[in-house]
Design goal:
The chain is an alpha/beta fold and about 350 residues long. The protein has two domains: about 130 residues, NAD(P)-binding Rossmann-like Domain (Rossmann fold); about 200 residues, 3-Layer(aba) Sandwich (Rossmann fold). Helix content is about 35%, strand content about 15%. InterPro entries: DgcN-like (IPR011669), DgcN-like_C (IPR035086), DgcN-like_N (IPR035402), P-loop_NTPase (IPR027417). Pfam families: DUF1611, DUF1611_N.
């Protein structure tokens, strides 16, 4: 049985806990769905599974599908977000193994699970569910451009897969801890799996993308915050259109720019250099003023996972002085992150 699950309201409950499938990837950036679920929904993850030769790991126990079922898993989640969102032929045997062991299959890929004859036939024979979460709702309108009530923050980046989702989730948690009414608004497959609702922006027809971004963050109480997960980069050679539609449609009052120090080339497009943080701030504010003249930059979020605590603290401090704004790693609680939260809430 093939199903498509996606609405901006709550999703039907997905069958969990999950076995995270890492395919045959060798680049951690392409396994961001698996890492996101591990970090933000650990109670729903029993382990990981991969094709022979895969080199990326989440650090969770490696379980065969049969072992995962014995541990309580009810579905296997494709934890990969590769270029184009395709399901390679090399993965089919592993996914069939999972279905035969008793697991439903959940996917956030562009390719629909039911398009693959082997999976569709196995699902029918075994009584398994094929669940696609990267499916936009019907009836998305053209963007109106009208301002909406409530407050909005959008995370944007110098590239893909460097911390926009983690920054949005960390800020949502911090705002709530300070007593603010706040919602995390998911715009990609991983965020949707974490939040249980959202809009898969990169699966929306381009004419309706800004309208979809408007739907993500509807009118709200004037004191309510929506923190919106960013996608791609305004400088990305392939995905800039998604980023711009999200910027115009979400009409953020505040933006936080995300960057990974040391990354110099666009992930998956090494012929292109990354823009600087300053260039990204400037272009974001220039384009964002089209639908919100009062847009401002609340600060910068750096992904310092590759640095030890001492080096990360020194970098955050020096970059804050250089850029003249709050700079923090949202995954490193402390004074720097508190200052970023303060700057966003001003």
């Amino acid at each position: 049985m093939s199903q498509s699950f996606l609405r901006t309201d709550a999703l039907p409950a997905l069958p969990g806990p999950y076995l995270l499938f890492l395919g045959d990837v060798h680049e951690a950036g392409y396994a961001k769905t698996a890492f996101g679920l591990r970090d933000w929904a650990p109670e729903r993850c029993v382990g990981e599974f991969a094709c022979a030769g895969a080199t990326v790991t989440t650090g969770l126990p490696f379980l065969t599908p049969a072992q995962a079922v014995a541990a309580g898993a009810r579905s296997i989640v494709i934890g990969v977000a590769n270029i184009g969102g395709q399901i390679p032929e090399a993965w089919i045997t592993s996914l069939l193994q999972a279905m035969e062991a008793g697991l439903d299959v959940i996917s956030g890929m562009h390719m629909r699970l039911g398009e693959l004859v082997a999976l569709r036939d196995a699902a029918a024979a075994l009584g398994r569910q094929l669940i696609d979460v990267r499916q936009p709702p019907a009836g998305i309108p053209i963007a109106s451009g009208h301002r909406r009530t409530g407050k909005r923050l959008l995370t944007l980046g110098t590239d893909c897969a460097l911390g926009k989702k983690y920054t949005a989730l960390a800020l949502t948690r911090a705002f709530a801890q300070r007593g603010h009414a706040v919602d995390f608004r998911a715009t990609g497959q991983t965020g949707i799996l974490i939040a249980g609702r959202g809009m898969p922006m990169d699966a929306v027809i381009s004419d309706f993308a800004a309208g979809a971004a408007e739907l993500v963050s509807p009118d709200a109480d004037p004191t309510h915050w929506d923190i919106i997960e960013g996608q791609g980069s305004l400088f990305h050679p392939a995905y800039a259109g998604v980023s711009l539609a999200l910027l115009h449609g979400s009409q953020p009052d505040v933006v936080v720019i995300c960057h990974q120090p040391g990354r110099e080339r666009v992930l998956g497009h090494p012929q292109y250099a990354l823009p600087s943080i300053e260039e990204t701030i400037a272009l974001t504010l220039q384009l964002g003023r089209r639908t919100n003249a009062g847009i401002r930059c609340g600060g910068v979020a750096l992904n310092t996972a590759h640095l030890d605590a001492t080096a990360a603290e020194a970098l955050l401090r020096s970059e804050s002085q250089r850029l003249g704004c709050a700079v923090a790693d949202p995954m490193r609680p402390g004074p720097a992150f508190d200052q970023l939260v303060d700057a966003c809430l001003v």
